[in-house]
Structures are given as C-alpha cells and as structure tokens.
From TrEMBL:
<dbReference type="InterPro" id="IPR005894">
    <property type="entry name" value="DrrA"/>
</dbReference>
<keyword id="KW-1278">Translocase</keyword>
<feature type="region of interest" description="Disordered">
    <location>
        <begin position="311"/>
        <end position="370"/>
    </location>
</feature>
<dbReference type="InterPro" id="IPR003439">
    <property type="entry name" value="ABC_transporter-like_ATP-bd"/>
</dbReference>
<dbReference type="InterPro" id="IPR050763">
    <property type="entry name" value="ABC_transporter_ATP-binding"/>
</dbReference>
<comment type="similarity">
    <text>Belongs to the ABC transporter superfamily. Drug exporter-1 (DrugE1) (TC 3.A.1.105) family.</text>
</comment>
<dbReference type="InterPro" id="IPR025302">
    <property type="entry name" value="DrrA1/2-like_C"/>
</dbReference>
<dbReference type="GO" id="GO:0005524">
    <property type="term" value="F:ATP binding"/>
</dbReference>
<keyword id="KW-0813">Transport</keyword>
<dbReference type="InterPro" id="IPR027417">
    <property type="entry name" value="P-loop_NTPase"/>
</dbReference>
<dbReference type="InterPro" id="IPR017871">
    <property type="entry name" value="ABC_transporter-like_CS"/>
</dbReference>
<feature type="domain" description="ABC transporter">
    <location>
        <begin position="5"/>
        <end position="235"/>
    </location>
</feature>
<keyword id="KW-1003">Cell membrane</keyword>
<keyword id="KW-0472">Membrane</keyword>
<dbReference type="Pfam" id="PF00005">
    <property type="entry name" value="ABC_tran"/>
</dbReference>
<dbReference type="Pfam" id="PF13732">
    <property type="entry name" value="DrrA1-3_C"/>
</dbReference>
<keyword id="KW-0046">Antibiotic resistance</keyword>
C-alpha cells in the first residue's frame, strides 16, 4: 500500500532545467522523510508538486491517499505546509496572522484565538504577538510561519527547510516540536541542506541532486553504503597539508578531502586501528607534525561527497535561485485554501517577483478570513 506521501516518476522542467527528473517517493504513515540536497537539487519543486502548487509534466502523486492532480482541493485540506519563503502578512500582528489561518480552516473565532495564543507561547512569540509581523526578525518570522502551519493539526505536513535561519536554541526547539508532532502520528516530509538535521529527525532520507534521487535509506544505511571508516588528520601548519595528503592518499580507498582553514584532511580507509597506526608512523617519518589524528565512522557529509563529488552544504555554482511562484501554471493563484494551507514562504533569496505573487495569495486569504 502506498504511504501517506507517495510519488511516482515525477518530472518537471523549467526551460532547459530538469528540476525533477523522475522522482519516486514513498513515506509510510507516521514517519519523517528527509529530502536532502544542495541548492537547486529540486527539493522545493518536489514539495510544490506534492502540495498541489505546481503541476508536474509527468508522473503521479498521492497525499493522504488522495490523488494530487485529480483532487487538489481535498489534498489541501489534509496537509499543512511551511514553505521555504515565509509569507506571513506583514501588516497583521503575529496573533492576527495565526487567527486568520484558523479562520481559514473554518475554526470559530474563539477557538482560532485560543489556538493562536497557544502557538505564540510554544514558539516563544508571546511577547511580540501583538506587534505587526513587519517588525519581526528573520528568525521570528520563520517561527511565526511554522506556527501558522500548525494551527490545525493536519495528518500530513510539509516543511521546506524549516530551520534555515534559526539560531541553535530555536532550531533545537523546533526539532522538539517536530518530534512531538510525529509521536502524535503526523507524517512529515521535510527538506534540508543540513545533514545533521536529517540525521536527527528523519526515519528515511532521500538524497537528491539535479532532480534525481541518488540514494535513499536510513542514515545508518547510507553511511554503511559509503563504507569503511575515515582517517582524519589535523596538521600543525598549512604547509604540511601537501605532504600529509600524499601520505593519506597512499592509504586511502577513495578521494581525500582537504579543509585548508582547519588544516584537516579526511580520507576513506578500510583496516581500522592497525591501519591508523601505520598512517601515523608514515606521517611521522615524513616529518609531518600532527595536532590531531583519529579514526571515525562516515558522516552523512561523507555520504554526500562520495555520491555527488561535492559537499551538501556548499551552494553549487550558478544555482540556488529557489523555486518561485512565477512559473505561470496558475495552480495556486487566488486560491484561498492554498493560501492558507500552502501559500506561506519566505523571501530569503529572491524577494521581488515572489513577494508580488504572494501578495495576491495573501489578499485572497485575507478576503476569505473576513
Ligand atoms: N519557477 C521556476 N522557473 C524556472 N526555474 C525554476 C523554477 N523553480 C525552480 N527552478 C529551477 O529548478 C531547479 C530546482 O529548484 P528548487 O527550488 O526545487 O531547488 P531546491 O532544491 O529547493 O534548492 P534550494 O536549496 O536552493 O532551495 C533549480 O535549477 C531552479 O533554478
Ligand atoms: Mg528550496
């Protein structure tokens, strides 16, 4: 049986760019899928297709057992979305924003107000609750946007880079909220560029790059797939990086990674502690002074590098203009349900056109809230 979020062969092109190039997804009910990938990988595009905001060129998808293309309105009623680009209404206060969303979901005035109060407390926004959102900091907006996605407790949630821009305390706190939600039975698809986040929150991880799922599994499975351990050496001076790299490559089972700013070299190996001893002897023999040396299991970062040849958290050249609402397919335009459920997002990178498009969604939402 397909999971609570299911997609098969999704393809979406924008001109020459294949944003989705045959993506399959299956998220069992009550679990978290982490969609992990660098800028421009196709994460937001996948979320937009699954949340009915964008029609794929090919493929099909079901959310909560409902066909996304055939019954988008029903899908919208079953989901919550916190988009990558928060679109809280600047001129309303935090409390009014949340109350408005409650009203959009047919809550009574009193209930909507009470729910808004609860969420303001939960996201540490109570003190700022009666100020217009335009006076909020980036992190506060992000939290308000996430709170808005939780006004009703939909069975399926989508969060597009939920913790980007949050400070460590607020990130941790959001992780707690997410874990509570999932413990309560919510199915969640979240996108992230943070390996640590996927590691911490996701039951299953799909690594995406260039619109394709290039690996999937639990964090442990992905790490095991990358194989072996890593020898990590921190040399005493940057001048020694070259020699140390030569030595390590001699022992390595794959490409080495050099981080000049921390004077660290990492290389995949097999052979455990015995091999480590040999590496240390050889480095010593070649006169390399070491500040630190050790053996560790692969991280998700290593997985990513071995799969894609580049790090996950470094934006790829010429990409990273996140998905806009401006592709002109009109699936979401002026649709109040979509605006409430899914029209939130944040102008983190590219404000102009997006802000204008979302203005329309917000106006529709405000009308509907009256
Ligand atoms: N509306 C659009 N018009 C044209 N190209 C688009 C549009 N939306 C996305 N793209 C392109 O599709 C590709 C995938 O974009 P997408 O926003 O899905 O990436 P992402 O994985 O969410 O990246 P990020 O981590 O930067 O948010 C990118 O090359 C992007 O430029
Ligand atoms: Mg994105």
């Amino acid at each position: 049986m397909p999971g609570a979020i299911y997609a098969e062969g999704l393809v979406k092109t924008f001109g020459d760019v294949r944003a989705l190039d045959g993506v399959d997804i299956d998220v069992p009910e009550g679990t978290v899928l982490g969609l992990l990938g660098p800028n421009g990988a196709g994460k937001t595009t996948a979320v937009r297709v699954l949340t009915t905001l964008l029609r794929p060129d090919r493929g099909r998808a079901e959310v909560a057992g409902i066909d996304v293309l055939e019954r988008p309105d029903d899908v919208r009623r079953a989901i919550g979305l916190s988009g990558q680009f928060a679109a809280v209404d600047e001129y309303l206060t935090g409390r009014e924003n949340l109350t408005m969303v409650g009203r959009l979901y047919q809550m009574g005035a009193k209930e909507a107000k009470a729910r808004a109060g609860e969420l303001l407390d939960r996201f540490h926004l109570a003190d700022a609750g009666d100020r217009p959102a335009k006076t909020y900091s980036g992190g506060m907006r992000r939290r308000l946007d996430l709170a808005a996605a939780l006004v009703v407790s939909p069975p399926v949630m989508f969060m597009d880079e939920p913790t980007t821009g949050l400070d460590p305390r607020n990130r941790q706190q959001l992780w707690d909220v997410i874990q509570e939600l999932v413990a309560g039975g919510t199915t969640l698809l979240l996108t992230t560029q943070y390996l640590e986040e996927a590691d911490h929150l996701a039951h299953d991880i799909c690594v995406v790059d260039h619109g394709r799922v290039i690996a999937r599994g639990t964090s442990d499975q992905l790490k095991a797939q990358t194989g072996g351990e890593r020898v990590e050496v921190v040399v005493h001076t940057p001048e020694q990086l070259g020699t140390a790299d030569e030595v390590l490559r001699g022992f390595g089972k794959g490409a080495s990674k050099i981080e000049p700013h921390t004077r660290k070299i990492t290389v995949p190996v097999t052979g455990g502690a015995k091999l480590l001893a040999e590496v240390i002897r050889e480095l010593d023999l070649r006169g390399v002074e070491m500040d630190d040396v050790g053996l560790r299991r692969p991280t998700l970062d290593d997985v990513f590098i071995s799969l894609t040849g580049h790090a996950a958290e470094t934006p790829a050249e010429g990409e990273g203009e996140g998905a806009g609402a401006g592709d002109g397919d009109g699936t979401a335009d002026g649709d109040a349900a979509a605006a409430g459920a899914a029209g939130r997002g944040r102008g983190r990178r590219k404000r102009g056109k997006k802000a204008a498009d979302q203005g329309g969604e917000r106006r529709a939402a405000r009308e509907a809230a009256k």
